[in-house]
């Protein structure tokens, strides 16, 4: 811990950010880690989360016992055409930002945090600006390779900018580069503690051939139609070479079950289909030899921390095309394969073939992935928060 004697008995933290899991879970993991660090030194943590009423954080923070409040926010609808940026909806939302800043300033002034942590999302802008107005140290955390819109707006106000990748540093404006520190993207600690055999037992994977590698396919909580469609087409080919755990999204189970019903019994036994993977995720990841997934920042952080070879199918509509940048960044390092544009069953097979049939190829990609992983990212981010709070 950074100079614990200079820290108050009760450390006060404002967290702001959210809208999606990509902004919410790193913040939550940092809060948990900071709480544990302070408790070990006999200190307490008082946290207030400033979020949006309809974002994921509005459910997650109260469920974790974290005080939660909201401020008015304005969402900017992006467009390549500058004229379209001046849409009635954008103008209306932009008018809400000064109100949000005024509300956030009142909250920050009343709470008097030792430090404010902003992890991105529209709500971070008013709270981050309020931190500067109230002369409270602001720490930004960026999950993706390139700074998101909110963090770009706040970069000049930040005491520290914690980034997830070395590759981000040269992309930062020169004026703020000296405030940047590479921490990695915090990964929920439970993700790193899975057991492969537990997944076999819990999920009843008695038909799996353990001489074959196991492929985990996931499209996120809702499933990804694009990934589901190409996996459906490639399914017999995949099952001849691997066991498959396929998390397809609750709405897609019936259609894929109908496809699986036509498989030969031996192949069908190697296919485990589920709408959603919950508490068993760490065990499923421990069992997986290769992963097919989207390339959101949280997914990348987890898979590289675990050293998992991956084939990424970036979500084309992600903000600022960040998923494609994330996937390309790892592909260039030999730590993943990125499938952009139109993804067909043939392209998926070409990408997976060498990984499923060549253990040495898998091991090489796993090692490359691991060198980009930062399982200690939460601890590094806590170091930055404590340093900023004490003026270190």
Automatic annotation (TrEMBL):
Its main location: membrane. GO terms for molecular function: transferase activity. Transmembrane segments: none annotated. Residues 14-162 form the Glycosyltransferase family 28 N-terminal domain. It is found in: Cell membrane. UDP-N-acetyl-alpha-D-glucosamine binds at residues 20-22, 188, 323. InterPro entries: GlcNAc_MurG, Glyco_trans_28_C, GlycoTrans_28_N. Gene3D superfamilies: Glycogen Phosphorylase B. Its EC number is 2.4.1.227. Residues 214-381 form the Glycosyl transferase family 28 C-terminal domain. The keyword Membrane applies. Keywords: Cell cycle, Cell division, Cell membrane, Cell shape, Cell wall biogenesis/degradation, Glycosyltransferase, Membrane, Peptidoglycan synthesis, Transferase. It catalyses: di-trans,octa-cis-undecaprenyl diphospho-N-acetyl-alpha-D-muramoyl-L-alanyl-D-glutamyl-meso-2,6-diaminopimeloyl-D-alanyl-D-alanine + UDP-N-acetyl-alpha-D-glucosamine = di-trans,octa-cis-undecaprenyl diphospho-[N-acetyl-alpha-D-glucosaminyl-(1->4)]-N-acetyl-alpha-D-muramoyl-L-alanyl-D-glutamyl-meso-2,6-diaminopimeloyl-D-alanyl-D-alanine + UDP + H(+). It is a peripheral membrane protein. Pathway: Cell wall biogenesis; peptidoglycan biosynthesis. Belongs to the glycosyltransferase 28 family. MurG subfamily. Cell wall formation. Catalyzes the transfer of a GlcNAc subunit on undecaprenyl-pyrophosphoryl-MurNAc-pentapeptide (lipid intermediate I) to form undecaprenyl-pyrophosphoryl-MurNAc-(pentapeptide)GlcNAc (lipid intermediate II). HAMAP family: MurG (MF_00033). This is UDP-N-acetylglucosamine--N-acetylmuramyl-(pentapeptide) pyrophosphoryl-undecaprenol N-acetylglucosamine transferase. The lineage of its organism: Bacteria, Bacillati, Actinomycetota, Actinomycetes, Kitasatosporales. The gene is murG.
């Amino acid at each position: 811990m950074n100079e614990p004697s200079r820290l108050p008995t009760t450390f006060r933290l404002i967290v702001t950010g959210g809208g999606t899991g990509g902004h919410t879970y790193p913040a939550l993991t940092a809060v948990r880690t900071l709480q544990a660090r302070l408790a070990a030194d006999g200190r307490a943590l008082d946290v207030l989360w400033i979020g949006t009423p309809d974002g994921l954080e509005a459910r997650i923070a109260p469920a974790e016992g974290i005080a939660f409040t909201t401020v008015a926010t304005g969402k900017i609808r992006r467009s390549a055409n500058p004229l379209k940026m001046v849409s009635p909806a954008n103008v209306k939302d932009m008018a809400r930002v000064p109100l949000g800043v005024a509300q956030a300033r009142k909250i920050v002034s009343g709470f008097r945090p030792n430090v404010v942590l902003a992890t991105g999302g529209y709500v971070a802008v008013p709270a981050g600006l309020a931190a500067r107005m109230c002369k409270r140290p602001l720490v930004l955390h960026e999950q993706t390779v390139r700074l998101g819109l909110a963090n770009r707006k706040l970069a000049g106000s930040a005491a520290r900018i914690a980034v997830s990748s070395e590759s981000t540093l040269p992309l930062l404006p020169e004026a703020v580069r000296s405030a940047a520190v590479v921490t990695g993207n915090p990964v929920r600690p439970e993700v790193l503690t899975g057991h492969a055999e537990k997944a076999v037992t819990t999920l009843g994977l008695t038909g799996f051939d353990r001489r074959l590698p196991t492929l985990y396919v996931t499209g996120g909580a809702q499933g990804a139609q694009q990934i589901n469609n190409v996996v459906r087409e490639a399914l017999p080919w995949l099952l001849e070479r691997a066991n498959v755990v396929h998390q397809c999204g609750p709405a897609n189970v019936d259609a894929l079950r109908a496809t699986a019903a036509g498989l030969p019994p031996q192949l069908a036994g190697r296919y485990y289909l589920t709408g959603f993977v919950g508490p068993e995720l760490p065990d499923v990841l421990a069992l997986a030899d290769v992963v097919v997934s989207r390339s959101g920042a949280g997914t990348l952080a987890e898979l590289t921390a675990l050293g998992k070879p991956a084939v990424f199918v970036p979500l084309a509509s992600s903000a600022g095309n960040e998923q494609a940048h994330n996937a390309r960044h790892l592909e260039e390092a030999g730590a993943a394969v990125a499938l952009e544009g139109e993804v067909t069953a043939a392209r998926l097979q070409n990408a997976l073939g060498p990984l499923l049939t060549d253990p040495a190829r898998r091991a090489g990609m796993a090692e490359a992935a691991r060198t980009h992983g930062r399982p200690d990212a939460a601890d590094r981010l806590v170091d930055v928060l404590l340093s900023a709070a004490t003026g270190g």
